[in-house]
Amino acid sequence: MSELIDFISFKDPGVLTILIGALAVSFASAIIGTFTYLRKKALVGDAVSHSVLPGICFAFILSGEKDPLLLILGAFLSGWISVFFIDFIVSRSKIKADSAISITLSLFFAFGAVLLSFIQNSDNANQSGINHFLFGKAAAITDADLKLFIGVLIIVGIITLLFFKKFTTICFNEDYAKSIGWNVKWIDFVMSSLTVLVIASGIQTVGVVLMAALLITPPGAAGFWTHSIRKLIFLGLIFATISTVLGTFVSYVRPNMPTGPWIIFFLSIIAILSVLFSPKGILRRLVLNRENKSKIRNENLLKTAYYLTYERELPDFSRSEIVSKRSYETLELEKGLKSLKNKGFLLENSGRFYLSESGKTEAKRIVRLHRLWELYLTNKMNFKSDHIHGIAETIEHIITPEIEAKLLAELDYPDKDPHDSVIP
Amino acid sequence: MENKSIDVHNITVSYSGAPVLWDVDFELPTGVLAGIIGPNGSGKTTLLKTIMNIVKPVSGNVKVFDSNIDKVRNRIAYVPQRESVDWQFPISVMEVVLMGRYSGKNLFKRTTKADKEIAREALESVRMLEFKDRQISELSGGQQQRVFIARALAQKADLYFMDEPFAGVDMATEKTILEILLKLKDEGKTVLLVHHDLRTVREFFDYTILLNTRLVAAGKTAEVLTEENLNSAYGARLTLLEEVGKEIKKKDFPLREKDFDDK
User: Fold this and answer.
1) Is B102 in Cβ contact with A168 (below 8 Å)?
2) Candidates B54, B86, B90; nearest CB to A232
3) What whole-number distance in Å separates Cα of residue B192 and Cα of residue B180?
């Protein structure tokens, strides 16, 4: 608990540096990542993230020190070479993009891993901590790093603002952008450069292995909640903030914990929650499914009651009389009866049931919709009369009062259905 | 021909080595409705994109309004194939139509009130104004097509390129698009569109370009749509042409000798 207070009160001045640095990185990632995501280049982002490793190692070997600017330059260059490499393979060979991406990723990462072990076995005193680039260590962020990260965020923010329409248009419709004379290659170059820059600056915090998740997960999760690019970026920034603060905190409390996996862990939780609980999510669909099922069951039961009341002309009816008209599973029947009683549609008197006034109206409505739809199918869609019952069985449950009104008007307020039954 | 809108001069186009258009050559006057007709895979879309220089030809050249297309891009409008974009993309109807006001010059121009007014008018004329704030993912196929047409109208062009605007649309949309085409023609604009339905060619188009990897015929519709031409485009396959194409692809053979002067 005291650790939490230390953390949020920035008792240790280093915490502020770490937190702001990590936030700058994840903001820049969420912004440019939105376009990576919309351009469907998530895999390229992953390949580039892995491919910056050899660049970092080279920069370190050549300079012998961990100067952030040099390391980022090395990372940027080797990231860009990997982008060109992927394009080169795709345009000059029969290899498709997905294979080209994975070839590039493995090749560059393997090379980087070799260089990394070479550095670790050397006797350079500065080499400790270079392996943080694999999984990230936010705690290692220095003041010099911080300035760099904020600089990158400002560059990414300003250029994205200036190029917002351009990025959006080529993500949506590249050919159109070409047709109005835009230099799509150049815009693409700007977009890729920003992505590589963000990746190069982000790996110290998150590590090469998980960097792509920092780009793609925020817009991916936000996509479940909104359908506007601006909101996509905005929500992505919020998600990035939450997960970065939590991830940095964990890695602050347990200094031997790498930061990257924790930030990505919290981001993934947000993504999973979005998948489950958003308006387009799984849970909502399950709820709808349940509601639909009970609606269908209840309305079918009302139709049975209509038949028993009006066509068999029974004053009241028992469970077995209901089942003799239409078979229901016992449990479903009980659920339905209970639910209809709760709604006041059905009344019970010592084991026998009868429709209330509101129940009669509701039952008539469903039978009416069924017969109207049958009529619509025969008259307007030329279905044969022996095919229509099954379709109408389903559609009767979904017709809204507005559709019903239009249906009545279109069919000219009929009184008989195709089977010559009265439309109530 | 006076008042040429498009002059396509001997263009040959290939995708990954195999030629898809052989030496296509035709001219189009201004103020006509012209259709590019041909069977599937005959290079219709490629021809349209080559005229706009979205696809680069291996040889030959194209003039639009007697100049390089890059100099007259503000006079052209483009409706791409509806299936060529992702309609789940998070963008609203109005935002798509406003793309019609973006221009090649003035790289960072802001959208003005006048631009918005033009976009509204364009949406009005395709009867989609009430949908202007909808997300495009909520639209039906016909509505999507109308949004694309509205974007092209917002471009306020003299020459309209449309790729299969009638493909997979409902009757109401077809009628709306047809009205717009006729109105554009009345205003003296030129429309070149890729079309797949042979039956409606005669009623829609003044000019027809009949294509099947090579130009079969181009000119006034009545003169082009002869039985002989149609047989040539749709009937007999030119198996030898295909074989040569395969050979070129296999050997990575050039489609033109370097020193061949094409101009």
Assistant:
1) no
2) B90
3) 13
Cβ–Cβ gap A165/B54 under 8 Å: no
Phi, psi of B216 (to 5 degrees): -85, -50
From chain A residues 17-76, the ones with a CB under 8 A of any chain B CB are 38, 40
Which residues, including other chains, have CB under 8 Å from residue B84's CB and lie 6 or more apart? A173, A175, B163
Domains by residue range for chain A, with CATH: 11-280 (1.10.3470.10), 284-355 (1.10.10.10), 360-410 (1.10.60.10)
Q: For the whole model, what pTM was predicted? A: 0.83
**Packing angle, helices A13-38 and A143-162, rounded to 10:** 30
Alpha helices in A39-67 (DSSP H): 42-51, 53-63
Judge whether B139 is closer than 8 Å to chain A, CB to CB.
Answer: no
Per-position pLDDT tens, chain A of length 424: 677 777 777 677 778 888 899 999 999 999 999 999 999 999 999 999 999 999 999 998 888 877 888 888 999 999 999 999 999 999 888 899 999 999 999 999 999 999 988 888 877 666 667 778 888 887 788 888 899 999 999 999 999 999 999 999 999 999 999 999 999 999 999 999 999 999 999 888 888 888 999 999 999 999 999 989 999 999 999 999 999 999 888 887 887 778 888 999 999 999 999 999 988 788 888 998 888 888 888 888 888 888 888 888 888 888 888 888 888 888 888 888 889 889 888 888 888 888 888 888 888 888 888 888 888 888 888 888 777 888 888 888 888 888 888 888 888 888 888 777 778 8
| Alpha-helical segments (H) within A163-257 | 164-172, 174-179, 184-206, 211-222, 229-253
Say yes or no: B140 contacts chain A, CB-CB below 8 A: no
Interface contact flag, A179 B135, Cβ < 8 Å: no
Cβ contact, residue pair B78, A226, below 8 Å: no
